[in-house]
Amino acid sequence: MNIWKISIKNLFHKPLYTLLSIISLAISIGLLLGIRQLDTAVKQQFDNSLGNVDLVIGAKGSPLQLVLASVMHIDNPTGNISYQEAKKISKNPLIKTAVPISYGDNYKGYRIVGTTEQFATLYEAALDKGQLVQKPMEVVLGYTVAQQLNLKIGDTFLSSHGFVDNDMDVHSDPLTVVGIYKPTQKVIDRLIVTNLESIWEAHDHENHEGLNEHDDHEEHEDHESHKSHNEHADEDKEITSLLIAFKSPMGLLTIPRQINDKTSMQAALPKYEVERLFQFTGIGVKVISWIAYIILIISCITIFISLFKMVKERAFDLALLRTYGASNFQLIKIVAYEGLLIGLLATVLGVIISQSGLFFVYRMIKEEYKQTILQNLSYIDILQTSLWVFVMIVVAITLSILPIISMNVSKILSNEK
Could you tell me if residue 376 is inside a domain? Predict the structure, then answer.
């Protein structure tokens, strides 16, 4: 007697029940795997993007927004701060590295960051091709930017104002590609890095054009007044934020409080803010996980009902098999194999559903935020979820075979006749 063949035939005996059981179970498995994998992947991506940044100093506002804007580069900045004030802070003996950054432009949606050569060290980025920025209007591309935009050494392009690609507000000064970083799987991969002077010159040029238009209407202004204004502007440059790495943990205990209490700027701790962010998002992850578990329980109940009905409705056939020499254990195996086949098919389909869904989610994140998230299949999550499914199916099988254990063959056969 081929038990596997009988079990497979039983699956197709009532295809609607079987299909319903497989689909509902696969959806719950897909949700569990998908939400866990997405949560883990995003957390890893955020941790990588933090690099060696211990503290961010910027304009007053939301500390989380400051971190997302200046470290993750997925939000708008809270404002600008004085470069002179930032340089004073960077002289603190507890500070190992203080990197100023200034941004506000983009090219094809990828942000252009004006900074110093130390910026790359925060993310342990090394050059793959070309050289570092030597003068204004030169840029080094992150690996993802170079790959996605197909830019090479020597190429030039015009940047747009703001963080969204547009053809309306384009700067007139072209930027030249002089280098490309190696891939790091960190935020620098999707940035266009230049020096501070490039950002200042691009925006000063706009300001000068505005002043010239204004001068056409106010020709009586004194030339020396313009000269004095320009010199003052050169001395009072602004940056978006200051990224800091400390020599020791002692800096974390003193400097943030000093900045927040005694200056017009604010200090935010990236690791703390990101952890706080995931505490909020973790609620949603738990809710979706519980919904998936509820669907999983309902699916297993459906499987139990299907198997139990099969045993009750085909009691005569099972009893007849007993008369031909089949043991109770063989009859139990028929039911068990049917339940396990449903679980196996549902698990495979659930994995396909989770990976397909994550593929579209990751693509949406990439298009919206220019953020590439690695889609790594977590075998531990698959093993844990499969174990849950196996345990619940075993329970369903155990309950459904009770009529076989208490089967009265003679009574069943006589009643049918």
Answer: yes
The number of CA neighbours under 13 Å toward the Cβ of 156 is 7
Judged against a pLDDT cut of 70, whether residue 9 lies above it is answered with yes
Q: Does 15 share its domain with 127?
A: no
Q: Model confidence over 19-60: pLDDT tens digits?
A: 888 898 999 999 988 888 888 888 888 888 888 899 999 999
Which residue among 237, 268, 299 closes a domain? 268
For residue 275, tell me if it sits in a domain.
no
Counted domains in the chain: 2
pTM: predicted TM-score of the whole model, two decimal places: 0.75
Q: Which of 56-65, 157-166, 335-344 has the highest mean pLDDT?
A: 56-65
Closest by alpha carbon to 175, among 144, 143, 153? 153
For residues 75 and 159, state if they share a domain. Answer: yes
From residue 369, alpha-carbon distances to 143, 205, 224 in Å are: 16, 29, 46
Question: Who wins on pLDDT, 212 or 387?
Answer: 387
274 part of a folded domain = no
Q: What's the rounded Cα separation, in Å, for the pair 341 and 333?
A: 12
- Number of other CB atoms surrounding residue 1 within 10 Å: 10
What residues make up the domain containing 34?
Answer: 3-46+281-416
Distances from the Cα of 64 to the Cα of 98, 111, 272, angstroms:
20, 19, 9
Matching residue, tokens 């309306």: 168
The answer to whether residues 215 and 105 belong to one domain is yes
Give the whole-angstrom CA distance, residue 95 versus residue 109.
33
Q: Cα 180–181–186 angle (5° rounding)?
A: 140
Which residues contact residue 163 at a Cβ distance below 8 angstroms, ignoring those fewer than 6 apart? 76, 104, 106, 109, 111
φ/ψ (deg, to 5) at 327: -90, 165
Pair 48, 185: CB distance under 8 Å: yes
Q: Nearest 5°: phi and psi at 264?
A: -85, 5
Residues 187, 131: contact at Cβ < 8 Å?
no
- Same structural domain, 37 and 61: no
Of the candidates 48, 318, 37, 75, which has an alpha carbon nearest to the alpha carbon of residue 189? Answer: 48
